Amino acid sequence: MPKNILVIGGTRYFGKLLVQRLLRLGHSVTIATRGYAPDPFGDRITRIRVDRRNEHAMRNAFRDLSFDIVFDQMCYSPLDAAISVRVFAGKVGRYVMTSTIDAYRELAPRDAAFVETDLPVLAQRIDTAYPWHDPARAIECYVSGKIQAEAYLERDGSLPLATVRLAHVLGGPEDFTGRLAHYVDLVRLRATMPYANAAAKVSFMEAQEAADFLLWTGMQDFRGPVNAACDGALSSFDLHARVAAVLDETPRAAQVAAAAPGVLSPFDFATPLALDTSRAKALGYRFGHTKDWLDDVIRHHDLAFV
After folding, report:
1. pLDDT digits (tens, 9 = 90+) for 98-152
2. Contacts (Cβ under 8 Å, ≥6 apart) of 1
3. β-pairing, 92-100 with 193-195?
C-alpha cells in the first residue's frame, strides 16, 4: 500500500537514492530542504522549503501535515532532535533517524565488532547549551552531536523511532566526501601512505545499499538502534592495497607510530571500528560484501583523477 513519506534531506548522495526508490515503489514523497541543492524529481514529489534548524519555520511548515514515515537525514544534534519531537510527535507512524558508525568512536577500543547495546544511549549527557548550530564547529561536534541526538530522541520517547547507524558510505557519482578519492590520488601519484595499524578494520557500505537499508528499515516495525554495514570490513591499509591492485599499481605504505592530525588517511584508526550486524540480519536483512562493489567504485573514482 502506498505511504505518505517525508524525507528531510533528500537532495544529495544516498538521500537522493532513497527518494528514487520510494518513488519507484509508488509512495507519495515530500522532501524538506533549504532549497539550495537542485533535485531531479520534477513534479513527482512535493517540496517544502524550510530550514530544518529553525523551529518556528518547521512548526509552520508541518502544522497541518502528518506522515506514515519520516526519514530524517539531517538530525545532527540534540537541538535538531528536540525540534523533531515538538514538530512531529503524534503525527508520524514511524521515524527513521540516520546516525553513524562514528558514534562508537567514543567508546573504549576493542577488537570485537560493536553491537548496538555497546553504546549506552540513555546514559548519555545532553548538552543543549553547546553552540551546535555554529558552522565553524560542524566537524568537531559531528560525533557528539549524533550521539546526543540519538539520546534525546530515545529519552523523550514520543516518536516511533528506529535509528540506523550506517557504516562509512562509499561510492556513487555524488560521493562528495573525497575519502576514497584520497586513496586513488595517492596510488596514481605513487605517493607513500602513512598508516597507524594495518589490522584496524573498519566497516563500509556502498551508497546504493545505504539507500536500500534505509528503505527497508522504514517498512519494518522494530524500534531502537540498528547497525548497517556490508560484510568484509577493511583497514585503511587493506583499502589502499585494494585500490593499488585495481589500478595495477604498486602500493606504497609506511607504518608510523604517531602522526599529527591530518597526516593519516581517512578511515585510518589505531583500533578497529567495525559493526556487528547480527540484529539487522536476525530481523531479515541480508547485506552484500565489499568485494561485490568496491572495485567498480574505485574505477569510478579513477576516472575522475586528474
Report:
1. 999 999 998 988 889 999 999 999 999 999 889 998 888 888 889 999 999 999 9
2. none
3. unpaired
